[in-house]
Amino acid sequence: MHTILVIVAPIFALILVGFLCRRTNKLGDKAAAEINKMVVWLCLPALLFKVTATATWSEIWHPGFIVAFGAGALAMFVVTLGWRLCSGHGLVAASIDGLSAGYANTGYIGIPLCLLLFGQPGLQPALISSLIVVCLVFAISLTLIEIGLQEERQIGRAILLVSKALAKNPLVISPLAGAGWAMSGLGLAEPVMHFLDMLALATTPCALISLGAFLAEKRTGSQASPWPLVGLKLIGQPALTWVLAFKVFSLPSMWAASAVLLAALPTGTGPFMLAEYYNREAGLISRTILMSTVASLVTLTGLLYLLGYAG
């Protein structure tokens, strides 16, 4: 558990900083929303652009791993989406909840964990999983949210409105622009890389402080239990990924183990950022992130023993 605790402890510390700053009024009542806007409009787009602009085809093309990890994430998203829609929730809320069940914290926890366990080669599966999470699962959720926000009866008009909304969204534009830049083969100048790095490195701490500030607010919104979403994220996703990685595709040991561990990571801050960005009730999402992070101390440690990496 020490390995996991070393990586996860700073997450709790940043959430606590945001919580205490808001409770002591060092941050105002609009702090969570304003910090989140900075993340959505500046920090996260810089990170997405940098990741896609610097990725090479040889680094990311591992089809067995892509399917094993991606199918696990998408399955949890689809299952949760269907469950929430059948429970009477709208498409916007159901999409954000679905993202909570499939959005692994691959950036802040996954990358250092893979580096600790597998050394430099562990960066590849961590990078691929990050791309799947932010450029596939996140993008699908964004698209469904925009569809859910439209009230147009005419299909053609609704598609046009959704397309326009997505074209203005920085979280859609930035990875597409990065992919286009990568295909150009121009590379990124050193000052540009430093600029992107400075913004990108602020993504996680700002998002976690924003989450802490949000948790400090006394709210009367939904008090629904986060544990069904936590269970899907920490048990359902790694279980399905285990079957695909070890049984179906028989991936090499590092790739199979990393797929399962990355699938077992707690929910990242992406769903919370979307809920705040679209002015939706974020109480359930914030509790899911917090509880899944706490519970992952136990579940990840158990997986490390099962996979033989506990030492």
TrEMBL record:
Its main location: membrane. It is a multi-pass membrane protein. One of its GO terms (cellular component) is membrane. Keywords: Cell membrane, Membrane, Transmembrane, Transmembrane helix, Transport. It is found in: Membrane. The chain crosses the membrane at residues 6-23, 35-53, 65-86, 98-120, 126-149, 170-189, 195-215, 227-249, 255-277, 289-310. This is Putative malonate transporter.
